Amino acid sequence: MSKSDFKSRFSGSYFGVVWAVIQPLMTILIFWFVFQVGFRAQPVSNVPFILWLIAAMIPWNFFADAIINSTSAFTSYSFVVKKMVFKIGLLPLVKVTASFFLNIAFNVLLILIYTAYGHFPGVQLISILYFNICLFAFVTVIAYLISTVNVFFRDTTQIVGILLQFGIWLTPIMWQESTIPEKFRWLIKLNPIYYIINGYREALINHTWFFAHPRQTLYFWTLIIVIGIIGISFYKRMKSHFADVL
To answer: Of 184, 199, 201, 245, which shows the fewest CB atoms inside 10 Å?
Structure first.
């Protein structure tokens, strides 16, 4: 179902799933051109700016894509929810997994680019795998919550899209957290996606292991559990009303 869902996004187009690669790739190239060529950004953490940028952009692209697509997990499969004997609780997972296919391809591209610049991650690929698990878990627990809300409040997709536009700039993806006064940096670290993006960069650039920040790790997984309990509990409470609304 995830494979079919992924292909269905581009059904009827001439280039098909190629657009799935072109669109996020163009976004990365635009940001790179603006900051590297336009603003003449200097190397960050002793690596070219493009390496520093894509280490954050690639996990963010998956996060944004999966969140947007999973919002409609139940509404886009309303025929399954209403007429078929099917474990509809799998539908948010179907959407997240469909987005994860592209994330795998971009992670491979990320590794190839780092290798071309002479920064092959080596054993830090274990850390990248860990942070991909974190990302998948984070998106999944959010998916159950927002996809359930969207069944009853169809403006959820538009609201989520706006929040993601704010999120990309509130998260240190195109800017360094060092530009924020030190006394306020703890606010940035409350953002769970920061844990993943910073982990990517530290693993790829500084070769720092994923367990180097135990307090942040504890905070992240505690938040995952809390959001998961809330989202799944809300879904179980409301799923009996899905067929009536859809």
So the answer is: 184
